[in-house]
């Protein structure tokens, strides 16, 4: 399997996960206000870990079935959450941009 999707998704998840941890003010300015900042940072930590694992797998060219499911499953989960909660007007429509990126990632994984 081609490691490029793991490298791209890994970097994307790592950057987007670390962002609210290191600069919550700019994150909130783009994504909108949040009530539970601890939850935002928790999701950031989890995205960072997933991103780091995907990056390592890509760099080492070790794209296993488990890595495939981690990549596609995390993208699918985020897409579902973002679409549901944007439609319920709980989170900002800016999250639909991320949903589009996640859908592209899922397609990329499937086309490998």
Principal-axes shape call:
globular
Tally of helical segments = 5
The SSE order reads HHHHH
- Low-pLDDT parts are none
The helix fraction, in percent, is: over 70%
Strand content: under 5%
> Quaternary status of these chains?
single chain
Number of domains: 1
Q: Structural class from helices and strands?
A: mainly alpha
Largest sheet: none
The rounded Rg comes to 14 Å
Distance between the termini: 6 Å
Mean pLDDT over the residues = 97
Key attributes of the depicted protein:
mainly alpha
Short description:
The chain has 112 residues and is mainly alpha-helical. The protein is built from five helices and no strands. The chain is globular, with a radius of gyration of 14 Å.
What can you tell me about this protein's structure?
This protein is mostly helical. It has one domain (4-111). The chain has five helices and no strands.
Task: Give me the secondary-structure topology.
Layout: H1 4-22, H2 24-31, H3 37-59, H4 65-87, H5 95-111
Helix pairs in contact: 1-2, 1-3, 3-4, 4-5
């Amino acid at each position: 399997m081609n490691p490029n999707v793991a490298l791209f998704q890994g970097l994307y998840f790592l950057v987007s996960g670390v962002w609210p941890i290191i600069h919550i003010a700019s994150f909130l300015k783009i994504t909108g206000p949040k009530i539970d900042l601890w939850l935002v940072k928790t999701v950031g930590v989890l995205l960072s870990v997933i991103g780091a694992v995907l990056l390592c797998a890509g760099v080492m060219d070790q794209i296993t079935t488990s890595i495939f499911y981690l990549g596609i499953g995390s993208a699918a989960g985020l897409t579902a959450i973002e679409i549901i909660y944007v439609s319920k007007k709980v989170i900002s429509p800016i999250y639909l941009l991320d949903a589009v990126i996640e859908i592209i990632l899922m397609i990329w994984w499937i086309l490998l």
